[in-house]
Design brief:
Elements (H helix, E strand, L loop, with lengths): L18 E2 L6 E2 H11 L6
Antiparallel strand pairs: 1-2
């Protein structure tokens, strides 16, 4: 099996649900929403 499909867990909380791997984030949706402002992401409406 290729490496990128082996482990899809959030680096912050360890959950396996809804993990964002794009750009090497490896964060679940909840952790991403909490950490996004600190990482420089802005919310656009």
């Amino acid at each position: 099996m290729p490496e990128e499909h082996e482990d899809r867990t959030c680096e912050r909380c360890g959950t396996r649900a809804a993990v964002y791997q794009q750009f090497g984030l490896h964060l679940c949706r909840r952790c991403f929403r909490e950490m996004a402002p600190k990482m420089g992401f802005e919310k656009h409406e």
